[in-house]
Amino acid sequence: MREVAIVSAGMTPFGELWQSSLRDLFVQAAREALDAAQVKRVDGIYVGNMSGGQFVGQEHLGPLMADHLGMAGVPAVRVESACASGGVALRTAFLEVASGMSDLVLAVGVEKMNDGADVTNVLATAADQETEVYHGVTFPGLYAMIARAHMKTYGTTEEDLAAVAVKNHRHGKLNPKAQFRLEVTIEQVMNSSLVAAPLRLLHCSPVSDGAAALLLCPLERAMEFTDRPVKIRGSGFATAPFALADRADPAFLEAVNHSATRAYEMAGVGADDIDVAEVHDCFAIAELCVLEAMGFASPGGAGDLTRSGETTLGGQLPVNTSGGLKSKGHPVGATGIAQAAEIFEQLRGEAGERQVKNATIGLTQNMGGSGASSVVHIFERV
Amino acid sequence: MAGIVGYGAFIPRNRIKAEEIARQWGKDPQTIERGLLLKEKSVPGLDEDTITISVEAARSAVERAGIDPSRIGAVYIGSESHPYAVKPSGTVLIDALGIGPEVHVADFEFACKAGTEAMFVALGLVESGRVEYAMGIGADTSQGAPNDALEFSASAGGAAYIFGKTNLLVEVLETYSFTSDTPDFWRREGQFYPRHGGRFTGEPAYFRHVSSATRAILEKSGFKPSDFRYVVFHMPNGKFPLTVGKQLGFKKEQLEVGWVVHTMGNTYSGSSPTGLAAILDVADPGDLILITSFGSGAGSDSFVLKATDLLPKRRGFAPTVRSMLDFPRRYLTYGEYAKYREKIILNTES
Amino acid sequence: MPSPRYWREIPNRLRLEAARCKGCGKVSYPARLVCPSCNGMAFESIRLSRRATVVTSTVIHVAPADFQMEAPYALAIVQTPEGARMMVQIADCDPADVGPGLEVALEFRRIKQEGQSGILCYGHKGVPAR
Q1: Are strands B230-233 and B288-292 parallel, antiparallel or unpaired?
Q2: Taking Cα atoms as reference points, which of A13, A30, A22, A117 lies closest to residue A61?
Q3: Percentage of residues in chain A with pLDDT exceeding 90?
Q4: Which of A128, A138, A249 is most worth mutating to test chain C (most C CB atoms within 10 A of its CB)?
Q5: Which helix (DSSP H) or strand (DSSP E) does residue A46 occupy?
Q6: What range does the domain containing A365 cover?
Q7: Do residue A100 and residue A195 come from a single domain?
Q8: Per the structure, how many domains does chain A have?
Q9: Distance between CA atoms of B49 and B277, rounded to whole angstroms?
Q10: CA-nearest residue of chain C to A242?
């Protein structure tokens, strides 16, 4: 397999984008990436999207988006892994270039959630229809159960959860494309209304529209398109038992753990080598569990780590400098790509007020459902 | 001789006090409680209906009978609140219990008498030899119209009886049914609440049929009121069964155990069947028991029963009626009650 | 709830039928074709006992459309003595009283109605054991 680089990125703002349709969002993000690299036509397109079908009644997104990019004829397909669709689109694009099959491949994540669909019901299709959704579970409900198990085993508190939200809002305030650009306090988080106990409104990522895009090419050609390419050093993907009830320990995200191990192995690095990371904080508890599953914190230690400021900008390992899903927004299929776009900017020194000094190696972690799928990528400044 | 080989009851855990309903409608709680002799009633949750109540009661009946449910050859559920207008309650029950597919199933209806009616038919089928075991169930989650007298009493619950010819817990010595066309209480198709004839529901309806059936069965069987250890009548409120009992020559002690209405309310098709279950929970071998139901429209089914030696040995296998009446209860506000009973107007689906 | 799906799911929803792997003994609920433990495909059908212990739980405040009238309600992952785990609502108690370790009985309940004209969906819920 040959080495692969990201040579440009694009991203729409995330938020309630009433003026933009699903296809508008896709084209906007994709064109930003294409224009930055001055590329007119690509060899392949991967569309990361959880459910165009259920949100706006649109399937078959590959050819639709290729057509709207003015590239009808180019091989294009949608990939899906619930909230990890974006990360999986990146992985699949990476494999296509690494294999030698194609040179220029676009990985674009997009989701349009605000066109009137019953969002709770659509998101619930990422959970087990027969054993979980039938009984009235919601996405926050699943993570709430994970939180309760974590609290029981490790003594994690609601303040620990709130600290994650506070940190990510602090970062998001510095991100011009974030959905929410305001800080919140621990008290505000702890007093927000209950969604699924113990998770409150401000522990939960919002409903968003948005898209993000990355252009990949073989490392040996990268300089044709940019003077600061970012290399993909590792990609790891894993699944876990689907229903929360079928996992040995509900508080342990085994798919995250395995996907990280595989990515670290491929990249030849360890958790200590990572300078900056974007992880999947769909709910505050998720960030804590992910940090533990990836080896950034000891089992049960992520709460302390967060409150100590280590994962805040300026700390040892800044996590979610983009604002995370919480503050930046979570248009489901776009998230995995947006995470990589943030790391891309960080490693090129273009993250402005969010810049992590001397960031050399970065990581993204993107997961689907209640952790049934997880994909990790490791990037390096070239 | 055929009789009862297993019995079970189920009463939902939610309750609402008569005084809470009275306050809602600006009525004096004391007057209501004294007039109806009702303190509180059971309320089904949004997740409970005649089918769920029947299944739990039937499971208890099977436990007490100690038989393989697949030997039950007929299942009849009597109710005036079957969840479907068309699709039997009984079919859900048989698949839940593992009865059938070789089984005869029918849903019965006759206002509050549908339970004893199901029992009567189950008994007859076993007596005829056509099936080995047959189950008759009375269960309801009936509605009382807001600000109507019946709102104080209409409650939810039910009991199940398995009939057979061997290992009887209770012998059935005699039956009698008294029926006539009497329009005391009715509900037309599509109406949410029933209507009734006010005071006409008393003398010409309840009292006439309960008395006639009971007097007739006493004559037919040769027993007198004092021969019975326990008696239970249909309980539309706390007063009627005590009044008719007295009129017929029964004493309060004979009525007490079966008189569960005071804290349960009127479970319609489940009323006298549940009262009977409460009696079977404590009856001694050899005790004579009389049950007379009443269903508006109108009719009464009467049974003379005798407890056997086996009854005390088997009844411990399932919860007693008293334990369900006295233990975990949750008291609701009128607003919660209205929500659970779906009395709050919502948009109909498009 | 489409008719075929209701009908296929009867053994697992109405009777709590699970599958015990003949190879390694693992109990899968609902029944599966392939054992997640040993990959075997030979099973015996068992009926789970109607009692369980809460492993973890939550209280759903913001509910899906079908369950809105019932919110807030407790939802839990429970484990039966046979080792099967399932997700069920916990009913007939203050949702705040539900937590890991609570012993429950599994009672037959109507899970959802689907409006005024759909098929009624049944199953089991946990209620605090007496």
Answers
A1: parallel
A2: A22
A3: 99
A4: A138
A5: strand A44-48
A6: 125-202+232-381
A7: no
A8: 2
A9: 20
A10: C36
For residue B17, what are its two tokens?
């006090």
Catalytic residue among A83, A204, A282, A289: A83
Catalytic, A289? Answer: no
Is the same domain home to A154 and A31? no
Distance CA A350, CA A354 (A): 9
Give the H or E element holding residue B240.
helix B239-248
Specify whether A312 is located in the same domain as A260: yes
C116 vs B59, B95, B349: nearest CB: B349
User: Which listed residue (A150, A203, A280, A330) is catalytic?
Assistant: A330
**Shared-domain flag, residues A238 and A373:** yes
pLDDT (tens digit, 9 = 90+) per residue, B36-50?
999 999 999 999 999
User: Could you say which of B33, B40, B56, B112 is catalytic?
Assistant: B112
Q: Which long-range contacts (CB under 8 A, 24 or more apart) does A64-68 make?
A: A64/A23, A65/A23, A65/A26, A65/A27, A65/A30, A65/A108, A65/A110, A68/A23, A68/A26, A68/A27
**Residue A361 backbone phi and psi in degrees, to 5:** -120, 125
* pLDDT class of B349 with cuts at 50, 70, 90: low
Are A237 and A365 in the same domain? yes
Contact yes or no for C64 and A136 at CB 8 A: yes
Verify that A197 and A216 share a domain, yes or no. no
Q: Are strands C17-21 and C43-47 parallel, antiparallel or unpaired?
A: antiparallel
**Residue A369's domain is classified under what CATH number?**
3.40.47.10
pLDDT tens-digit readout, C34-82: 999 999 999 999 999 999 999 999 999 999 988 999 999 999 999 999 9
Give the chains touching A; criterion: ≥3 Cβ pairs < 8 Å.
C
Query: Closest partner residue to C64 among A120, A144, A194, by Cβ?
Result: A120
ipTM over 0.85: yes
- The reply to whether A95 and A130 lie within a common domain is no
d(C-alpha B228, C-alpha B305), whole Å = 9
Q: Are residues A217 and A164 in the same domain?
A: no
In chain C, domain spans:
3-128
* This prediction's pTM: 0.91
Cα A185 versus chain centre, distance: 24
